[in-house]
Amino acid sequence: MDFRDTENRRVLIVDDQQEIHDDFIEMLKPRFMKAATDELAAAFTPREDTAFLPEFELLHAPSGEEACEVVKAGRESNRPIAVAFVDIRMPPGIDGIETIRQVRTVDRNIEIIIMTAYTDKSLSEITHDMELLHKVLYIRKPFAREEIQQITLSLVGKWNIEQELAEKRRQLTINHQRLEAVLDATGDAMAMYDVAGSLVFANRGYEKVLDLAKSELKKMSPKAFSAQFKKRFREPDLTDVEGRFLFEGKGNVLEKATAGHVPRQRLFYRSTAPVLDGQGDVIGDLYVYRDVSKEIEVERMKAEVLRLRNVLETTYSFAGMVGASAPMRQVYALVKQAAESDISVLIRGESGTGKELVAKPFHFNSLRKKKPFLAVNCAAIPESRIASELFGN
Questions:
Q1: Residues paired with residue 14 on neighbouring β-strands, in sequence order
Q2: So what's the pLDDT on residue 2?
C-alpha cells in the first residue's frame, strides 16, 4: 500500500484503561511487521514475510466526552481524524455507542472500530441504530497485533482514498457549475441530444425557448420534443427580412403567440453540430438557437438610415438648386469648394433670397453630412440672448 506524506494518518484511541492505550502505541509503532503468531493473525497478514508499517499520529482519549472534543478540535483545525478505536464500556460518563453518536454529529467521515470484551452480541444488536452502522467495524478484545495493524492500515488508506474522491467530485461539481454558468451567459438556447435522440443537457435559455423546466425536458421522448417544438414555433416568412442579412444553417423558427397574450415576434437562427468523444466517434448533436431579432432590426434600421440619407442628399444636392447665370454658377463653385474643407461659412443675403436653400446642400455635401442639420430662426431670439443661445456665452 502506498502511503504518501500528504495522507492523513491520525488515529484516535478511546478507552478508559491506560494499558489499552499503551498496547496501541506498541502495536502501531513504525516497524517491519513480525510474522503471524496464530491463525487469526495469519488471516490478516500479507503473504510477504515483512511489510513496512508507516508512522501513525496517535491521539488518546480516556472518555467519550474527551473523544468528542478531540474530534471537534481536529475538524476546526482542518486536521480531521481518519480512524477511531472506541471501547463500548467507559464508566463513568457516556458509553461507546453514545460517543459514536456524538462524534457522528461532528464528523461523519471517521472510520470507527468498536472494541469490547464483554459481549457476544452482533454489531446491530449492540448499536440498536442502523444510522450508527455507517463506516463502523466491530472487534473483540483481546486482539492480535497484526489484526490492529492491518485494520488500521486498511481503514486509513480507505479514508484517504474517499477524501481524494470527494475532493475530485467537488471540483467536478464546481467545473460543471461554471460550465453551466458560461452556457447560460451566452444568451443562446443550447441543448445536446444523444444518438438516440434523448436530451443530455439543456441550458436555461433552452428551457425558456421551450417554456419547460429542466426536469420536464429530461422526461420527454424525442417524439414529445418534436410535438413541443411544433406547438411553440412555426417556420418564418423571411420575405421582409433585409436582404443583406445572411442566414445559414438548417432552419429558422419564429415564436408563436400563446394564449392570453401576443409576444414580441422573435426570429431564431438554428445551427447544429455533432458532438464527438475522445476517439472521434459521434456521441450526440448540439443544437443552438440564437435570437437574431435584434440583429435583423439593426439591419433594418441601417437600411432605413441609408435610404433617408440618400433622400436627403438627393433632395439637397447642388442639382436641386435652380439657376444657370454666371453669378449662380459662381455661387455653386464657392459652395462646392467650401464644402470640401472644414471651415466656418457665413451665408448672407436679404430675406427670401434662399439662404437656407444654399445652407442645406452645403451641409449635406460637406464633411459634416452625417451630423444633424439644425436651422435656427434668429429673428425669434431676442438680441440680448442671441449670443448665449448660439455660442453658450
A1: 61, 86
A2: 43
Classified as helix, coil or strand, 354 is: coil
pLDDT class of 171 with cuts at 50, 70, 90: very high
Short-list 225, 222, 219, CA closest to 206: 225
| Phi, psi of 336, deg, nearest 5 | -60, -40
Are 128 and 158 within 8 A, CB to CB?
no
Q: How many CB atoms lie within 10 A of CB 142?
A: 9
Q: How far apart are CA 214 and CA 49, in angstroms?
A: 58
Burial of 337 (0-12, 13-18, 19+ CB in 10 A): exposed
Positions of E strands within the chain: 10-14, 57-61, 83-87, 111-116, 136-140, 189-194, 199-202, 233-234, 251-255, 267-276, 282-291
d(CA 381, CA 216): 68
d(CA 75, CA 10) in angstroms, rounded, equals: 12
261: amino acid identity, one letter: H
The predicted-structure confidence for 273-297, as pLDDT tens digits, reads as follows 999 998 899 999 998 888 877 777 7
Asked whether the whole model's pTM tops 0.70, one would answer no
Query: Burial, 27: exposed, middle or buried (Cβ in 10 Å; 0-12, 13-18, 19+)?
Result: middle
Cell of 361: 446642400
CA 20 to chain centre: 52
Most confident of the ranges 39-53, 267-281, 323-337: 267-281
Q: What are phi and psi of 115, to 5 degrees?
A: -115, 135
The tens digit of pLDDT for each residue in 193-231 reads: 888 888 888 888 888 888 888 888 878 776 777 777 777
How many Å apart are CA 51 and CA 381, to the nearest integer? 105
What would the pLDDT profile of 339-365 be if each residue is shown by its tens digit?
778 888 888 888 877 787 788 777 877
- Is 286 within 8 Å of 192 (Cβ atoms)? yes
DSSP letters, 305-351, are: HHHHHHHHHHHTSGGGS---SHHHHHHHHHHHHHHTS---------T
